[in-house]
């Protein structure tokens, strides 16, 4: 592997999940979306690392943690190009990409200040109407939140 | 449709809309029937809307049902700080159906998720008002004797007008050709044009309709509100282009009818009222029949 030739910036894990190609400025959003700040697993991360694709990227390595697709796809809004490596005994046994889910709840705020989700204790819920240039339709107020106006909770 | 809440016009398929219209026509023939006797309908108006509330209450009264509720949030426990969820859950214990209007967008959808009885959305902020759309469809079909292939002129505030957006979504089922007439600042949002493009439906955008009114089967007028303009001078310059006067109806089609969701302010000159083409007051009457049909379908009492 090409990586072996260079010194790893974030040390390898024995088993668990590596999430690579996270845009550097969205690292903490990804951590938040996956709830990594509330788990006891060992987590190492690096940020502002050089990346050909993204300019500057982040990487997160979570020991002994494996995600189901539904769970991991929630980060697609913050890190659409993220790549997952599933590690067992220091070897990559599986590679995965994230895909934007068809619908989801939480993660981002509805753009409409008059929406019930911004005025009452109601969790936002969206249907994804476009995945390329992400565009979300609010389940409640039916207004569209586009990529430009997406605010993560 | 039985037991199913009506929150958005998009909740109903084309066939379901037509079922409402067919049943509404039966109620027009015979509006007073006792099919709701023993039923209690709650009308929860968290913001006042006299016209819509009276139309619903008239519909229920003509069917022999009983009504409980409030006509503005000052007389509800919302002023004591009760959450919408708690109000809805409580009123579910007292009623078979809830009709609600609320200023917050999406509130009706949320209410339908916590309620044990069906909800009819009578307006949630600028979002949806589906019974208005169904009465608009009823009025169009009644005056044109069909819904297909009509030239529909929609005039005024096309950006914020919820009746406009819902009417567009509904008439898109019937191969309408849309003529959008509005000031530049209040043009129809791109998402609706994308929807029409997707369905291969024709539409045209104008800033003035004086020269093209001859093509119209239906002119649907809406109010252009001053507060929607960022520049008050722009409002003063454009406001007269969106006022319908009787003289403008001279060269129009004989089947043309003018609709308006009401309340009207000055966008339809009062000299139009006596024209045979003015239909907005009858349109409001149709609201009673349409709401009778919707209520009885949701309660499963249409047989």
Structure characterization notes:
The complex is a heterodimer of chains A (153) and B (303). Helix content of chain A is 10%, strand content 36%. Chain A is mostly beta strands and 153 residues long. The radius of gyration of chain A is 17 Å and the shape is elongated. The model of chain A has no long low-confidence stretch (mean pLDDT 90). With 303 residues, chain B is α/β, with parallel strands linked by helices. Chain B folds into two domains: 9-128 and 287-298, Aspartate/ornithine carbamoyltransferase (Rossmann fold), CATH 3.40.50.1370; 130-284, 3-Layer(aba) Sandwich (Rossmann fold). Chain B has helices spanning 14-29, 50-62, 84-92, 107-114, 130-144, 162-171, 190-198, 232-238, 280-298, and strands at 40-45, 66-70, 97-102, 119-124, 151-155, 177-181, 203-206, 218-221, 257-259. A five-stranded parallel beta sheet of chain B has the order 7-6-5-8-9, covered by helices on one side. The mean pLDDT of chain B is 93.
Quick recap:
The complex is a heterodimer of chains A (153) and B (303). By secondary structure, chain A is mainly beta. Helices cover 10% and strands 36% of the residues of chain A.
Features:
heterodimer; A: 153 residues; Alpha-Beta Plaits; 2 domains; five-stranded antiparallel beta sheet; four-stranded antiparallel beta sheet; 3 helices; 10% helix; elongated; B: 303 residues; alpha/beta; Rossmann fold; five-stranded parallel beta sheet; four-stranded parallel beta sheet
């Amino acid at each position: 592997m090409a990586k072996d030739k260079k010194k790893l910036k974030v040390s390898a894990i024995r088993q668990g999940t590596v999430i690579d190609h996270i845009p550097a400025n969205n690292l903490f959003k990804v951590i938040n979306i996956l709830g990594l700040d509330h788990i006891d697993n060992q987590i190492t991360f690096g940020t502002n690392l050089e990346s050909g694709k993204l300019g500057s990227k982040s990487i997160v390595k979570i020991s002994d943690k494996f995600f189901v697709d539904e769970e991991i796809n929630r980060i697609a809004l913050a890190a659409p190009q993220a790549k997952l490596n599933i590690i067992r005994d220091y070897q990559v046994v599986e590679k995965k990409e994230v895909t934007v889910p068809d619908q989801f709840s939480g993660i981002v705020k509805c753009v409409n200040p008059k929406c019930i989700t911004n005025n009452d204790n109601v969790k936002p819920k969206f249907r994804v109407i476009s995945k390329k240039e992400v565009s979300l339709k609010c389940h409640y107020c039916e207004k569209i939140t586009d990529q430009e106006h997406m605010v993560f909770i | 449709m039985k037991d199913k809440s009506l929150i958005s016009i998009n909740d109903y398929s084309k066939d379901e809309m037509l079922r409402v219209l067919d049943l509404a026509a039966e109620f027009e023939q015979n509006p007073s029937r006792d099919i709701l006797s023993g039923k209690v309908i709650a009308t929860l108006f968290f913001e006042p809307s006299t016209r819509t509330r009276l139309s619903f209450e008239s519909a229920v009264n003509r069917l022999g049902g009983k009504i409980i509720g409030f006509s503005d949030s000052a007389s509800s426990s919302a002023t004591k700080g009760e959450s919408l969820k708690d109000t809805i859950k409580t009123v579910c214990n007292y009623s078979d159906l809830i009709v609600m209007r609320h200023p917050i967008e999406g509130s009706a959808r949320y209410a339908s998720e916590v309620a044990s009885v069906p909800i009819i959305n009578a307006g949630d902020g600028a979002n949806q008002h589906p019974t208005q759309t169904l009465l608009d469809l009823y009025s169009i079909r009644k005056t044109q004797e069909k819904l297909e292939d009509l030239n529909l002129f929609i005039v005024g505030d096309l950006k914020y007008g919820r009746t406009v957006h819902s009417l567009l979504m509904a008439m898109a089922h019937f191969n309408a050709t849309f003529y959008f007439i509005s000031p530049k600042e209040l043009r129809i949002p791109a998402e609706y044009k994308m929807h029409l493009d997707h369905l291969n439906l024709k539409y045209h955008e104008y800033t003035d309709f004086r020269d093209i009114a001859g093509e119209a089967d239906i002119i649907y007028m809406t109010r252009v509100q001053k507060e929607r303009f960022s520049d008050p001078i722009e409002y003063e310059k454009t406001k007269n282009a969106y006022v319908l006067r009787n003289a403008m109806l001279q060269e129009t089609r004989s089947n043309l009818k003018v609709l308006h969701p009401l309340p009207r302010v000055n966008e339809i000159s009062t000299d139009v009222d006596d024209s045979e083409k003015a239909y907005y007051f009858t349109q409001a009457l149709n609201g009673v029949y349409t709401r009778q049909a919707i209520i009885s379908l949701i309660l499963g009492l249409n047989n």
